[in-house]
User: Fold this.
Amino acid sequence: MPIQDWKDAAHAAGWDAQGDKTNPTRQEQLDILLSVMADAYQPGKWTLDLGFGSGLVEKMIFDRIPQANVVGVDSSREMMALAAERLTPYVERYQAVEHDLAQIESLILPEHPYQFAISIQALHHLTPDEMQTAYRFIYSVLEPGGLFLLVDRMRVETPGLWSAVQSVWARQDRVYESMIKDREGANFAEHEQIVRGRGDLPMGPEQHLSWMRDAGFEAAILHLHGNRALIAGRKLS
Ligand SMILES: C[S@@+](CC[C@H](N)C(=O)[O-])C[C@H]1O[C@@H](n2cnc3c(N)ncnc32)[C@H](O)[C@@H]1O
Assistant:
C-alpha cells in the first residue's frame, strides 16, 4: 500500500467513505470513548481533537453530548473541507485549526477550558520524539482533572505471537466482514514493511502508557483488541 497522503483529495474522500471497514474495532472503541465523555461532560467545557480529519467523530460527539464543544486540529485542508461540509449543522459548536502536529509546540489554540483531549487514529503518524512532545503539550492544555483519550493503532511487536495476531484479524474478517488480515502482510517482516510503507509509526501500548506517565498523566488501557487500543490519561491536578 502506498504512503497515505492526507493532502490528496481522492485519498481523503476514500478514507472518509470506507475507513471503518479496515478497522472493525473502531465503532466499539468510539462508543466507549463517547460513553466516558458523555458521563462526565460539564457544560461550557471544550474538547480538543488532534487529527480530527473529516469530522466523523465530531458528528458523533455533537449528536450524543448536547453540551459538547470541540476544537479540531488537522494539517489536511482536504480532510478539513469534508469536516466543514459534514458539520454544517453544528457550526457554532466547533472551531477548526490547521496545524502540523509534528510541530505541536507552535500550535496556538483558542482559549477555552479543555476538559477532554482526544485523538483518533492520527498520532501514529508522529515520530517517538514528536509523540512525547504531543503528550506533554496535551497535559499542559488540559484543565486539572481533564482526560486524554487516545484511540489508535498499536505496533505489533512480538514476532513470536504473529500467528496469534493473524488469527485475531482472521476472526475479525469473519465476524465483521472486514478486510484486515490480507492487508497486514503474510509474515512479521512483511507486516513491518507494509506499516512503514504506509507512513505509520505505531508504538506498543506499554510505550504509550510509559510516555503518558512521563508527561504527568495517570494512565490506563481501557480497551485493547489485537493492534487497536483505547488508552486514557487523567491529569490529576
Ligand atoms: C485516519 S484519519 C483520522 C481522522 C479522524 N480522527 C477520525 O478518526 O475520523 C488521520 C488524520 O490525521 C491527520 N494527520 C496525520 N498526520 C498529521 C499531522 N502531522 N498533523 C496534523 N494532522 C495529521 C490526517 O490529515 C487525517 O485527517
About this structure: The first strand starts at residue 46 and ends at 50. The chain has a mean pLDDT of 95. The CA atoms of residues 118 and 225 lie 19 Å apart. DSSP finds eight helices and seven strands in the chain.
